């Protein structure tokens, strides 16, 4: 899961190259969506504590501070069952301190877990495969560290061999290097790309 979207990819590996068979994604789902849910939760809490009918959401500066701290809180919850949050001078020189449990976080994001499975189900259906036909699953993207997401994938043997944060950009760079005549690699990795959409070619004439 990339930070901004959920994109499962089905590929078939061969010696020194691999073939992309299918790709499915949800552009609206990802780590940022979880963080937005936490921002709303803590904004409500801060407004309630502050009173006076103030809505911290109307302050772009305050929301920017809250988003920064919420990202850290989400990451901590991937390793711990509780996490605290501190945003100094969040609004009108008032500090905001709070905490949240992983259980509460999973409850707040409850509608996201099922959505995360939709691209996977579509990929399997379109490929005509079952879960047992998949040999290995490799996790990439920062948001995939969230334990609840891993639980929903329903596999105990989830691969974590690649750097979750850097795999996408490094893979893109390697692919670009493979296609470039100006970069020489000692060993090239071939990729046969695939399309998630069907297409038809029509030829007119005899040529």
TrEMBL record:
GO MF assignments: ATP binding; ATP-dependent protein folding chaperone
Pfam families linked: HSP70
GO cellular component: endoplasmic reticulum chaperone complex
UniProt entry keywords in alphabetical sequence: ATP-binding, Chaperone, Nucleotide-binding
SUPFAM superfamilies per the UniProt record, alphabetical: Actin-like ATPase domain
A single BP term in Gene Ontology: endoplasmic reticulum unfolded protein response
Highest taxon above the source species: Eukaryota
Name of the protein in question: Uncharacterized protein
Lineage start: Eukaryota, Viridiplantae, Streptophyta, Embryophyta, Tracheophyta
